[in-house]
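Recap from last week: sequence in, structure out.
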Amino acid sequence: MIFFIIIKKKSQRIKNKNFIKIGSKQLWKHLVLELKGEKVFIDTDSDKIIKECSRYFPWVVAYSREKKHIEFEERKTNSPVLLMIENFLNKYVKSNNEIIITTHVTSPFIKLGTIKEAAKKLKTYDSVAAVTKYYNFAWLKNKHNKLIPINFNPKEVNKTQNLNPIVMSNGAFFIFRKKTFIKFKNRIGKNPFYYELSFPESIEIDDEEDLYLARNICRS
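Predicted structure tokens:
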């Protein structure tokens, strides 16, 4: 089982997000410390992270993000994450059966035990993705800015607990074997399992509201 993490130096919605303190630690260190004793690789454009991992976190191999991946993100609207995973697999993972876990430092409350429990699903499924379920009325906005109801009939009044839930990826982790990624060129294979996370492990820090919530959880 090998963990692969991508950490960017800069962020858009929250300035220097990965280096902001939540509780007593910078955001990126919450996950790194939770994974102590595991095999962890970090792809980053931050020299600070590389130096600190070398000095303080001996279970981590941190290496510099390739220039072509930085340029890809600057040039395009989509992310180079799949190219970065492929690069990591080719350089550092020998066995095609190796279990790979891509996880994100923006999920500071995720537990190693939860990830290992989710990884057991690979006995039956070819990949696992962390999700959150929402029992709320939901619409999809189409290209004409019209809202289309997707899990309810607007002519009826339903109880929210009786709705089909909206299932959303929370980005906490994706789990797969190297051979699955090579075959599908994706973190999700043909037969995935969507692993539901509960609060607060499901929290992903994207904006100031998420940051406020995470800091309050740490205080309590």
